[in-house]
Known about the structure:
CATH topology of the largest domain in chain A: Rossmann fold
Largest sheet of chain A: 6 strands, parallel
Helix content of chain A: 40-55%
CATH architecture of the largest domain in chain A: 3-Layer(aba) Sandwich
Structural class of chain A: alpha/beta
Strand content of chain A: 15-25%
Oligomer: homodimer
CATH class of the largest domain in chain A: Alpha Beta
Number of domains of chain A: 3
Distance between the termini of chain A: 62 Å
Order of helices and strands of chain A: HHHHEHEHEHEEHEHEHEHEHEHEE
Largest interface: A-B, 56 and 56 residues
Amino acid sequence: MILKKKLSIVDLAKQLNISPTTVSFVLNGRAKEKRISDDLVERVLKHVEEVGYKPNALAQSLRTGKTKIIGLMVEDISDPFFSSVARLIEEKAYKSGYKILYCSTDNNTEKTKDLLDVFRDRQVDGYIISPPEGIEDEVSSLVNGGIPVVLFDRYFAEITTDHVVINNEESSYNAVVGLINSGCKEIAFITLDSLQSQMQDRLKGYERALNEHSLNHHVKEISFFQDSENIIKHITNFLTRKDNLDAILFATNYLGVSGLKAIKALDLKIPEDLAIISFDDYSLFELHSPSITAIAQPIEEIAEKVITILLNKLNLPAKYKKNQAIVLSTNLILRNSSVK
Amino acid sequence: MILKKKLSIVDLAKQLNISPTTVSFVLNGRAKEKRISDDLVERVLKHVEEVGYKPNALAQSLRTGKTKIIGLMVEDISDPFFSSVARLIEEKAYKSGYKILYCSTDNNTEKTKDLLDVFRDRQVDGYIISPPEGIEDEVSSLVNGGIPVVLFDRYFAEITTDHVVINNEESSYNAVVGLINSGCKEIAFITLDSLQSQMQDRLKGYERALNEHSLNHHVKEISFFQDSENIIKHITNFLTRKDNLDAILFATNYLGVSGLKAIKALDLKIPEDLAIISFDDYSLFELHSPSITAIAQPIEEIAEKVITILLNKLNLPAKYKKNQAIVLSTNLILRNSSVK
DNA sequence: TATATTTGCTAAAACGTTTTAATATACCGC
DNA sequence: GCGGTATATTAAAACGTTTTAGCAAATATA
């Protein structure tokens, strides 16, 4: 890769004594259609190869309106769930010639709106978003404007969009039933004070399981906008106040991690004093002593569905763009923390 | 954010009955310099505000040659170390109006070369790279071409570039000395078969510590291109063959994690049978039983230095662009796994 | 031989900015 | 009332593509 003065398609055309139009047609594979002679096609391609010409992507984008860039907004790229999904999405996107412009929303509505503006200014071709609360209108106008958008991890019930989520309610229902079957009676649900669909559904599943077995509800909602220190404090406080609990379901992996820290500090035994299940599996839960039962999301499948839907929308004619709502199943990985 | 037909600066000018040039000058804060009357400036700004005009970033980039995009290449965005650094870099970049185009290199030389081409085609203004082996020439030509590049986590001794790394040799030296002081005699180093600077330096530190104490070397190099399953197999095999070991230093966090899995499977006791220290701290090491001593990299500081250097290079005149080689210190977090 | 069709290629406009160089008017001193 | 300078604004070129519409020559049709 040597950085000479960059050649333009006009330079190229001059060198070949033909018009830029012809070069462009050849390069865009429209030679047959435009009846460029095979001789000339070959001459162009050979020369392009020789001088190592690369078109200016900006100029192409300006002219065509297509950037081949996908905007990816996740809650937090340093979260293991989101970074794993992002990794897989990136891989598949690059394979189809798309690049990823990314950002973390922090679940912050205003920040997200700004970021959407940035993406729009940059004219990304499509959006992949794990949306915070309060951006329904913005998502709507994108969708109504015919711009490909795929939501994941959560969605807005009020607006029709393509989205890929998991069966949150069923997942937490099954987890809680598992706890009940292993003898737990006072089961807490530690979650975020979030109205996002995935959080609400997880709550519903928890409540349904308890109701069906006539058990007491113990819900602790923690504000999303806390650092890890404070989350631990709140959980510690909750556990100290509620000293009759015998199990906890954590609604996200980082709540689970903070919970484990709190439990360790309080010197409680898992699962004897307290059985544990957490959403979102990862290596920590596997290696922990005792190992932690987790609701594993099908990360590969999520990424696969998200990018496939988006690429289809990007490349297929509008009439095929029916909205898809994909609901994937989780996998309850039973480990020692939930068996009394 | 409503998606009307997008207005151009020309439309705006027509509506105001002035020339696009004037609008452009006002919008770029060059009104004073260009002696646009205060009246007109106000009229323009008011109208821009009213119609919600946003300039087309592509056209701007095409004209100015600046994209306000930074290309970020990390080894693997789903690795906790890299995703944490990426997160912080992203945050600071956005604050200065820069966006991040990112990708994972997989430490794959060819893939990385392709990705560099993609970034160049997209005309990113600057590069942040944790480089794989074999891209010295590509990095050289960027640097020689006057394009801002900052390497991190590792660098190339043969070429002068700005880079931000940690004191790898000293860090592993100190870790090994720690193990020796707590009575270990047969200390293994499990690392990657990598010629990258950080890996070589970590190896050097290990060897120097052993040599100074006349102890036996036990180095296990694992190929980078393995999935986690195979890494565990190799470590298990190594541990089985070398049954006289009493301590291990892992050269990266995921080697550490795989090592813990292997150790668990072999039912060895930490630290009684085997003391453990790993590079790169994260929550798993803190919560593990016993907790795992780790060499923590100063993630905040790394991100801060990287982005500061890059932004300076992007915004300061060329003459100030002296290369900086930053070496930061790690923090050996002593936990139970390394105290016999 | 005149007319239509196909073949092979291109000129010029367009995308939406920024920037250079210029113009036109007003003001000033003398 | 004339040269000079400051003031206020703009026309046009440039960035590097793609694409529309069209031209000329060659071939087919009648």
